[in-house]
Design brief:
By secondary structure, this protein is mainly α. The protein is 84% helix and 0% strand. The protein is built from 3 helices and no strands. Helix 1 runs antiparallel to helix 2 and helix 1 runs parallel beside helix 3. The radius of gyration is 23 Å and the shape is rod-shaped.
Length: 107
C-alpha cells in the first residue's frame, strides 16, 4: 500500500527539486537537469490533486521565485549560446573567404 504524501511534503519536494535543478543548470549538467525537471513534473501532477495548505503554499511561493531566477539564467545561457554560434559561423565564413581568396591569388 502506497501512502499519499501531505501537500507540505509534496511542496517541499518541489522546492528541493527546483533547487537541485538550478544547481544542475548552473553546472551545465543537462542530463541531470532534465531528470530533475521530469521529477518536478511528476510532483506537480500530484500537487494538482491535493488541497494546498498555507504551509505548502509558502514552499510553492519559494518555488515560484526560484523558477523566475532559473528562467532568467536559462534565457541568459541561451543568449550566450546563440551568440557563440553566430560568432563561430562568422569565423568559419571569414576563414572560408580567406581560403578562397588565397586559392584565387595563386592563378
Amino acid at each position: 500500500m502506497r501512502l499519499n504524501p501531505s501537500p507540505e511534503a509534496l511542496a517541499e519536494q518541489m522546492l528541493l527539486l527546483t533547487l537541485a535543478a538550478d544547481q544542475a543548470f548552473s553546472r551545465e549538467d543537462w542530463q541531470e537537469a532534465e531528470a530533475l525537471m521530469d521529477r518536478r513534473a511528476q510532483i506537480l501532477s500530484r500537487l494538482e490533486t491535493v488541497t494546498i495548505t498555507p504551509s505548502a503554499s509558502a514552499h510553492l511561493d519559494q518555488v515560484q521565485r526560484l523558477e523566475a531566477t532559473l528562467l532568467g539564467r536559462m534565457n541568459a545561457q541561451r543568449s550566450n549560446l546563440i551568440g557563440d554560434i553566430i560568432q563561430e559561423r562568422r569565423q568559419n565564413h571569414a576563414a572560408a573567404t580567406y581560403r578562397q581568396a588565397g586559392s584565387q591569388a595563386e592563378f
